[in-house]
């Protein structure tokens, strides 16, 4: 069996390289979005229901992972995944080069977004262990290397004969929304929008926490819940003590507060059509590519971190620790997931969500994924230099994502899935709500396992008065492999 798996892997890799070399021109056209309009000319297309190509059959097999059976109902399985980016984009005003300290207005770079090694163990379909190690966000600017670290390590036990589980460890059974439980390699857009992970790089370890979790399904209700201990790393400047908040004396502006309180998370989903049973892991796909049936799921969730926010009220002079107010951080969300298979292998996918964040007065947080630029000490906009943006704050976020699998294949080399997404952010710490867009397309060479994605995204720019005055753009091309 292992030999046959190795042969499949060799066949798969050889065919990928062969297709890549033969279709250089087609690849260039894809990067320019041209295939959305000209793929049919001179290229024989075929409905996806027809016989799959050898490369697709190999991908289907390898997507299940490399499995070593242990008896009739037990197995050990492992997998690997990688995402590599090429980026070209505009910098925020007030950006300087990290090395030369000279002003910069744009950039181009390569970066490793994710590299993952996964291992699963299923013992008699009763006891389960999962671990995932790897790298997240490895840019070529600003760091010499990134350490490989443990993302997940947990075990769970099936309760009785049904689909109910209890587990513990470092995990991502975090609740809040479907998008907060997204599988990194089965997204509808190129990457996640960040606000779906409200505590990322604050009290999460790359979206994970340590604790106990519950998972299961009753009828058409699928649930997930957890009680965790948030991380309190000493080297994270975004988490402050009461002494630091008092010394900062920024009236009526909340900051993340160091606390030993627990975090409570839950997500409940109702499945109107096809049921999605609890998976081995917590990770959800955002698109089944029309291959698993018809879906209409309605969900709701929350996340509450006790005592996580602190601030000083307006009018307090020379505040002390006793003047620092505190509260928990509460995030709530409702969402809907819809997928409709159509004729000739086409599929429509819609995801919409509404988030409410109560993180204390005028709370704001920024993020810049693998930010290659730095803020000019002589003067930069409040959100920071490079590609930094306000991703979270006390207030509301609306999100809409549409994707469509086209009803044909490009020879033997997979399908196209164009997508678009809209974010609406209304934070009380800013004077104006903003909108930002993502447009792009996946070339599904072998489903989600091998795909080339290109996307263009906008981000709002706020001035010193916290008014939305401009938007900047970022183009990313991603190559993904996952087996």
Give the SSE map.
Elements: H1 2-22, H2 24-31, H3 35-38, H4 54-62, E1 66-69, E2 75-90, E3 95-97, E4 106-123, E5 127-139, E6 149-158, E7 164-171, E8 209-218, E9 221-229, E10 239-240, H5 242-248, E11 255-257, E12 263-271, E13 295-312, E14 324-341, E15 347-358, E16 364-367, E17 373-375, E18 389-393, E19 395-405, E20 415-427, E21 434-448, E22 450-462, E23 468-482
Parallel strand pairs: 10-11
Antiparallel strand pairs: 1-2, 2-4, 2-23, 3-17, 4-5, 5-6, 6-7, 7-8, 8-9, 9-12, 11-13, 12-13, 13-14, 14-15, 15-19, 16-18, 19-20, 20-21, 21-22, 22-23
Helix pairs in contact: 1-4
Outline of the structure:
The protein has helices at 2-22, 24-31, 35-38, 54-62, 242-248, and strands at residues 66-69, 75-90, 95-97, 106-123, 127-139, 149-158, 164-171, 209-218, 221-229, 239-240, 255-257, 263-271, 295-312, 324-341, 347-358, 364-367, 373-375, 389-393, 395-405, 415-427, 434-448, 450-462, 468-482.
């Amino acid at each position: 069996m292992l030999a046959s798996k190795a042969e499949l892997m060799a066949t798969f890799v050889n065919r990928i390289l062969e297709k890549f070399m033969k279709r250089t021109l087609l690849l260039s056209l894809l990067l320019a979005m041209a295939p959305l309009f000209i793929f049919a000319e001179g290229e024989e297309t075929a409905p996806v229901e027809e016989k799959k190509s050898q490369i697709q059959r190999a991908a289907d097999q390898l997507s299940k992972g490399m499995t070593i059976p242990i008896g009739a109902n037990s197995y050990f399985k492992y997998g690997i995944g990688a995402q590599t980016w090429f980026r070209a984009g505009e910098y925020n005003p007030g950006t300087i080069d990290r090395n030369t300290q000279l002003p910069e207005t744009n950039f181009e770079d390569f970066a490793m977004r994710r590299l993952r090694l996964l291992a699963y163990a299923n013992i008699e379909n009763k006891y389960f262990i999962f671990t995932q190690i790897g790298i997240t966000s490895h840019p070529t600017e600003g760091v010499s290397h990134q350490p490989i670290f443990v993302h997940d390590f947990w075990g769970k036990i099936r309760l009785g004969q049904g689909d109910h589980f209890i587990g513990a460890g470092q995990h991502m059974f975090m609740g809040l929304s479907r998008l907060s439980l997204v599988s990194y390699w089965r997204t509808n857009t190129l990457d996640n929008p960040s606000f779906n992970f409200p505590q990322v790089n604050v009290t999460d370890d790359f979206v994970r926490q340590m604790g106990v979790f519950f998972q299961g399904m009753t009828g058409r209700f699928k649930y997930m819940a957890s009680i965790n201990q948030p991380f309190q790393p000493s080297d994270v400047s975004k988490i402050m003590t009461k002494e630091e908040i008092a010394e900062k004396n920024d009236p009526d502006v909340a900051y993340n507060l160091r606390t030993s309180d627990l975090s409570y998370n839950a997500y409940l989903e109702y499945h109107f059509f096809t049921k999605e049973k609890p998976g081995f892991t917590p990770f959800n796909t955002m698109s089944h590519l029309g291959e698993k049936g018809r879906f209409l799921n309605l969900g709701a969730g929350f996340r509450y971190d006790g005592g996580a926010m602190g601030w000083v009220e307006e009018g307090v002079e020379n505040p002390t620790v006793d003047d620092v107010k505190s509260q928990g951080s509460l995030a709530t969300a409702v969402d809907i997931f819809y997928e409709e298979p159509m004729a000739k292998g086409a599929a429509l996918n819609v995801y919409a969500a509404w988030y409410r964040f109560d993180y204390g007065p005028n709370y704001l947080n920024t993020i810049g994924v693998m930010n290659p630029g730095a803020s000019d000490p002589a003067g930069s906009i409040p959100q920071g230099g490079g590609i930094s943006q306000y991703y979270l704050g006390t207030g509301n976020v609306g999100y809409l994502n549409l994707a469509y699998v086209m009803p044909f294949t490009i020879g033997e080399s997979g399908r196209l899935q164009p997508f678009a997404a809209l974010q609406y952010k209304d934070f009380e710490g800013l004077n104006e709500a903003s909108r930002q867009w993502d447009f792009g397309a996946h070339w599904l060479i072998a489903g989600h396992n091998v795909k080339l994605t290109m996307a263009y995204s906008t981000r709002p720019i706020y001035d010193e008065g916290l008014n939305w005055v401009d938007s900047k753009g970022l183009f990313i091309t991603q190559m993904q492999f996952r087996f």
